[in-house]
Write a structure and sequence with these properties.
By secondary structure, the protein is an alpha/beta fold. Helices cover 43% and strands 15% of the residues. Bound molecules: (3S,4R)-3-hydroxy-2-oxopiperidin-4-yl beta-D-xylopyranoside. The site of (3S,4R)-3-hydroxy-2-oxopiperidin-4-yl beta-D-xylopyranoside has 6 residues, from loops.
């Protein structure tokens, strides 16, 4: 475990602040080119409608300029929603693959890799209504197993060779106390652990070459202690039981804690490093899967806000990318107008969120320069 003294922590923060102006001239090239130079990949989540051609029948929100931006900047994409049970499984007996297929086809057309997200979002809130109310019949254990394994096998049979990395299980740990959620499926199967284990074993058997990921949003910010501890317990259990899990997906939905960015980073980095040290000591790889920033406690002024968001992102990436187990950095949307954050948690002062790398006119923001600089500064893989 790395022990960081207060002096080192503050020194790190001072270095970050001193590094600020360097971000003003970002390294040349697309984010994927910069990442590739370090043995990394850069990417984003993509919603189906945004990559549809303008005027496509029945589609609202198609934006060719945004699609071009993604194609130019990214080496990997991930469907924002289209692979989730709620979208893919309208009924217990059917799969609605059209939108997910369209994303995969678009990626192939542009020579971009695809990650799979996700095979089991283990919370009742994110199950389709029919699954929460499902009648598992007289042998719930067998029916639960059948439902889950059929779901995973059907998807992997379709995409097994084209998708090399899957978030097999998403957000199974309750942030308030670190315990695992129960769902209709886990009650039928006889517990959350056997349910998650079954998901990973099924995925490994169906796609032996794929990287299998446990993905969650435990972060370095305050009030994440129980969440991080719960994720560590889960990862330890996977190792103890021989569950085939290759990597931890670190969602990275960052939240600023006011304008004193250097001090915030200095305060938060020790616990974060200890967490990542513990995860990597167990032999797990890491992925940054869903980077964006909630600009909390920052003034509405756009220049100040964007600067603080960029500095916070840079600080986070510098610390996190120091772990060479990370090969992929994905954002959760590339432009503010397509970010989920505004709908999920608007700012209390009514000004619109600015959580991503590009503004509404698709102009690069300081956060884009910060990500470029952090990728360029990463140690080569
Ligand atoms: C979000 C999508 O962005 C929204 O469009 C949807 O309404 C809800 O899900 N963690 C995850 C992602 O793992 O799947 C979530 O995506 C964001 C938080």
């Amino acid at each position: 475990m790395t022990h960081i003294t207060r002096r080192e922590a503050l020194g790190g923060a001072a270095a970050l602040i001193a590094a600020g102006p360097a971000i003003a001239t970002p390294p040349a090239g697309s984010l994927e080119q910069i990442a590739k130079g370090r043995g990394l990949r850069f990417g984003t989540a993509v919603a189906w409608h945004t990559i549809q051609p303008e005027g496509a029948k029945g589609v609202k929100g198609g934006n060719p300029a945004y699609a071009r931006l993604i194609a130019d900047q990214c080496g990997v994409i991930v469907p924002e929603n289209e692979m989730k049970w709620q979208w893919l499984r309208p009924t217990p007996t059917s799969f609605a693959f059209e939108r997910f297929d369209a994303i995969v086809a678009w990626a192939a057309q542009h020579g971009i890799a695809v990650r799979g997200h996700n095979l089991l979002w283990h919370q009742p809130k994110w199950f389709p209504a029919w699954l929460n109310a499902y009648d598992f019949g007289t042998d719930p254990h067998a029916e639960g197993e059948r439902l889950l394994t059929t779901h995973i096998r059907t998807i992997l049979a379709r995409y097994g060779t084209r998708i090399r990395s899957y978030d097999v299980v998403n957000e199974a740990v309750r942030p308030s106390d670190g315990a695992l959620y129960d769902t209709s499926l886990s009650r039928a199967i006889g517990g959350a652990e056997p349910t998650l284990d079954l998901a990973f074993h099924t995925a490994r058997a169906a796609a032996p070459q794929a990287q299998l990921v446990y993905n969650d949003y435990m972060s370095w910010e305050p009030h994440n202690e129980a969440h991080r501890a719960g994720v560590l317990r889960l990862l330890e259990g996977f190792r103890r039981r021989g569950t085939p899990v290759d990597a931890l997906g670190i969602q990275s939905h960052l939240i600023t804690q006011g304008s004193a960015i250097g001090a915030t980073i200095a305060r938060q980095q020790g616990a974060w490093r200890r967490f990542l040290d513990a995860v990597t000591a167990m032999g797990y790889d890491l992925i940054i899967t869903e980077l964006d920033v909630r600009d909390n406690g920052l003034p509405a002024d756009i220049v100040l806000r964007d600067r603080a968001v960029a500095d916070y992102t840079r600080g986070y990436l510098d610390i996190t990318l120091a772990y060479r187990q990370i090969r992929d950095v994905l954002c959760w949307g590339l432009a503010d107008r397509y970010s989920w954050i505004e709908g999920f948690e608007p700012r209390s002062d009514g000004s619109r969120r600015r959580p991503t790398l590009y503004d509404d006119a698709l102009r690069p923001k300081p956060m884009r320069a910060a990500v470029a600089a952090a990728l360029a500064a990463a140690a080569p893989r």
